[in-house]
Structure formats: C-alpha cells, structure tokens
Amino acid sequence: MPGKKVVAIVGMCGAGKSEVADRFIENGYYYIRIGQITLDEVKRRGLEIKEENERPIREEIRKKYGMAAFAILNIPKIDEALMNSSVVADGLYSWSEYKTLKEKYGKNFIVIAVYASPKTRYDRLENRIKRYKKDPKMKYRSFSKEEAKARDYAEIENLEKGGPIVMADYMIINEGSLENLYQQINGIINHIGNSL
Asked: Which residues touch 81 (CB under 8 Å, ≥6 apart)?
C-alpha cells in the first residue's frame, strides 16, 4: 500500500469527472464510484434510477452515518483495491468525506476538481441521452436542465459539496475540446505519477 495513491475526482454533475476518471483507469488506476452506494440502494428498493428517487436516499444515508458516510462506506473497497494499485474515486461530495479520506490516506490522497460552467454542464447533461443510449453502469447519465439545476442546489446546500472543490490539489477547466481536457489530465497524471 505505501506509495499508492487515492485520487478523488470532484465537481458538479456534468463537469467531466467520468472522462477524467477514464484517463486514470487507462493508466492503471482501479476505479471506484463513490456514489454507487446510492444507485445500489435505489435498485434494492425496486425504484427507478432517477434524481427524485436518489436524492432522498443520499440524504438518508448521510443522516444515518453522518456527512462522511460515503467515504466511510467506501474505505473497505478503497483499502482492498490499494493492495494491487492506486485508486481513482469518482464523485467525492462532502467536506466531511474529504476530511475523512485526507486523514486516512494523508499525502497519498489527491483531489482533482473538474469545473465547467452551469450552461456547459446542463447542455452536456441534456445531450447525453443521445450519446449514451447503452450505458448499463450508468456512468454517463442524462438530466434535464431543471433536474440538473435542482441537483446542483441540493448538493451545494445539503451536502457540503463546495469544500472539496475549493481544497482540490489540481483544477481542470473543462470548457473546451476533449483534446484540451486530455492534455490537462495527462499533465496531472505525469505530475503525480502513474499507479505502476
């Protein structure tokens, strides 16, 4: 485990976190989706995967386990993965989760914030349904502008989402081409080193 890294990707929905995570996966990092716990619980309850069903479950989990819930519940998966490789964790949300993971992994915990303007993000989220019709892992989910805006407000107001973004070690501005995004990601990967 020494020297292996936990790279957490933070940002609002539609900013490009999954694209960033994919580049780390290509460089040998093990992928963990922090919010998978919510989707698994939605499915377990026989509900449709959509924001209006997910939000109350996310908030219920945090009410039960505290604001660091998703970090705490994912630590066993992260520790297991670190036995073999570094980890990219997609979708760190709360300030409490950030503090929990920073305390546990110290200097080996690296946060990358991905930023795109609300207009850019909402356009992407509305267009995803056309681009990703077959997405069984639900990595590239689509939202209407209204759903995305409601999710933004809920995450900022209820889930302390701004803290990890502000405290990120690296910031990617994702307003341009995929080539520009990849250049930024590759620069960060080269700077922190790959997982091998």
From this structure: 30, 32, 87
Number of separate domains in the chain:
1
* Domain span at 144: 6-190
Please check whether residue 89 is in contact with residue 8, taking contact to mean a CB–CB distance below 8 angstroms. Answer: yes
| 196, part of any domain | no
Q: Is residue 195 part of a domain?
A: no
CA dihedral 118, 178, 134, 14 (to 10 degrees): -20
Tokens for 130?
């056309």
Distances (CA, A) of 90 to 30, 45, 115, 130, 146: 11, 24, 14, 23, 23
- Mean pLDDT, rounded, for 62-82: 95
pLDDT single digits (tens) 137-147: 555 566 788 88
pLDDT for 55: 83
The model carries a pTM of 0.85
* CATH code, domain with 168: 3.40.50.300
Does 147 map to a domain? yes
